[in-house]
Amino acid sequence: MKFVSAVIAMLTLGAVFSPAGLSTAQNTEEKISADSVLAELKTGNEHHVAHRYQHPHESLDRRRQLVAGQHPHAEILSCSDSRVPPEIVFDQGLGDLFIIRVAGNVATDTEIGSLEYGAEHLHIPLIVVLGHESCGAVTAAVQGGPPEGHIAALIDLIKPAVEKARGMPGDPVANSVRLNVEWVVKQLRSSTPILSELVAHGKLRIVGAVYSIETGSVAWLS
What we know:
Elements: H1 2-17, H2 19-31, H3 34-50, H4 60-65, E1 74-78, H5 86-89, E2 97-101, H6 109-120, E3 126-132, H7 136-143, H8 151-165, H9 172-189, H10 195-200, E4 205-211, E5 218-220
Parallel strand pairs: 1-2, 1-3, 3-4
Antiparallel strand pairs: 4-5
Helix pairs in contact: 1-2, 7-8, 8-9
């Protein structure tokens, strides 16, 4: 554990104390906030819906800047579905998003550990849990039946949302998708010792959203 901590510290310090990294880190500390990042993601999604992309941070200069270290401004926990690539959905570029993708956008210790790294060591102020309509993992959980192989582990994590959705008016898959996102948001906000502490001190905001594959729009959950 001491070795791992030392490696993380070296990686973080290397990014911050290199000349390029120091400048970027200072700018990030001065200007970034969860509200401003969320507003940027919403604007980027409007570009996606209208198919009027700005394609920011895709230049050779941007790639060279990132050699010194990364300073993404948002973490996205999203489904692995190929139809929901966060960089395109939010019109973002190289080094902008710290993304964790897993079927059903569930959160085990592995996913939470990645989010903790982004929040604590990269000082990212915003986490977005991004579900999407017609999610295959959620649909499988709603339909029931014995899942094959290791898929069962994913289904088990989604079942609480499916059970809560039973009897609700409307489409059971759509309801379960939304409730699953809400459940994961709640799970992350209460995750000790790192995420809950950052949330309590106002250093981290965690929000949920559902992406429409049909329209391309992101609905933000209250």
